[in-house]
Design goal:
This protein has about 180 residues and is α+β, with helices and mostly antiparallel strands. The protein folds into 2 domains: about 110 residues, no CATH class; about 35 residues, no CATH class. Helix content is about 40%, strand content about 25%.
Length: about 180
């Protein structure tokens, strides 16, 4: 099983829990501002030629990968070792988008594209789910009042449950699709 997580989860306690569980792999987004030590280690490996670079081109874009295995997550948790994937997406218009993840999966030239696709899939799922909830009669909107004592949290949970039931119906009931 592979857990794909947002950058909020790229911290030592979460990674330790996932690493302790048998057969659980993870791919977690990381950002340079919140992981300065990790990116510094990675850049050092790039400068020394110890980080692999790999490019794949298709008809729509160029994919550039750089990766390094066995880096410390941060200075205060040097025992938490991760593998880092750095990805640049270069469109035909020359625009560059950059993404990066830490993972428990040992990175190789053969698997970086697949790991990137898994890391990027979280956004596709999240965007499609929230766009549906916001724009297709669920009327879901961002609410800063979520919390244990707020009724709006219960309503949000009920809306997510209704959405889940609708998704099951849509995938399994031909009458629902009409």
């Amino acid at each position: 099983m592979v857990f794909v997580c947002d950058a909020l989860y790229s911290c030592a306690p979460v990674i330790r829990k996932l690493s302790a569980a048998a057969r659980w792999e993870y791919i977690i987004a990381v950002k340079p501002d919140s992981h300065k030590s990790l990116f510094s280690q990675f850049e050092g490996r790039v400068e020394r030629g110890q980080a692999e670079w790999h490019t794949i081109e298709d008809e729509h874009r160029e994919h550039r990968f750089s990766y390094a295995n066995d880096l410390a997550l941060n200075d205060s948790n040097a025992d938490v070792r991760v593998n880092m994937l750095y990805y640049e997406w270069i469109g035909n218009d020359g625009k560059v988008q950059v993404f990066s993840w830490v993972t428990s999966i040992k990175l190789t030239k053969a698997n970086v594209y697949k790991v990137m696709r898994m890391g990027r899939s979280r956004w596709k799922i999240e965007n499609e789910t929230f766009n549906t909830l916001k724009n297709q009669f669920y009327n879901f909107e961002h609410n800063f009042g979520h919390g244990q004592e707020n009724l709006c949290t219960i309503f949000a949970y009920l809306m997510m449950l209704a959405f889940y039931v609708d998704q099951i119906q849509q995938s399994s009931c031909r009458y629902f699709r009409i």
